[in-house]
Amino acid sequence: MKTVGKIVLIILFVPLFLSFLVATSTKFQFLNFDFWNGVINKPGFYEQLVSTLKKGAQQKDADITKSVLEENLKNFLDFANGRENKLFVSIPKGLPIASGRVSIDELTTISPGVSSLVDPFTLIQISRTGLYATSSWIASLAFTLVILFLLYALTDTGKRFISLGVALVIGGIFSFLLIGSLTVIRINWTGDALLGIIAPPILQDMTKLWIYIAAGVIILGIILFFFKKPKKK
Fold first, then answer.
1. Which helix (H) or strand (E) holds 14?
2. What burial class does residue 21 get, using C-beta atoms within 10 Å of its C-beta: 0-12 exposed, 13-18 middle, 19+ buried?
3. Cα–Cα nearest to 194, from 76, 63, 54, 33
4. pLDDT (tens digit, 9 = 90+) per residue, 111-121?
5. CB-based burial of residue 90 (10 Å sphere; 0-12 exposed, 13-18 middle, 19+ buried)?
6. By three-state DSSP, how is residue 38 classified?
7. Average pLDDT of the chain?
8. 3-class state of residue 79 by DSSP
9. How far is the C-alpha of 45 from the C-alpha of 48, rounded, in Å?
10. Burial label, 221 (beta-carbon count in 10 A; 0-12, 13-18, 19+)
């Protein structure tokens, strides 16, 4: 029965560890302006983006897009992480509704038509994104550690570290399989042209973090193979 229990725990560990990777990216990458700044400032990103959105686009169009996108990303992340009480929008000059940095509340007052696009409930949920991400990350980490603890407790003395090592190595291997699948999708993207510009650099930077974590877990697992409980004298 112990063997069956250990197999079940190892099987459960794999999806929990993968969910931990996703939660880690959500908290430390997707809600981090530096991550997005690195994504959107890759060589040729804005030129491709603007040429896809507008035929005959010029360099000034790319410059305007860069400024507006970076400012609004920062506005959104500040609101999502609870650093701002209101969601602000940076609007370029030349639009009939407004220009500069205005809050969503002001924008709906200036242009009533915008209110149909803004759901107050959705804004509340967005403002709690940082809290949800932190809670999800802590929960995924806690469940992963609980599985490892149960595996440790269920294994006979002298082989406990080996069982933990097996779980970690298998979790790391499945992580690399997922990373490999996402890399194939990134390299051979055949979907929407706009997503084809945005998604590949996101996947590239996201999986880079996963590689470090998965490699670290596999190395730790291998090290645990050599740990043995000292013999009693």
1. helix 2-25
2. buried
3. 54
4. 555 555 567 78
5. middle
6. helix
7. 85
8. helix
9. 5
10. buried
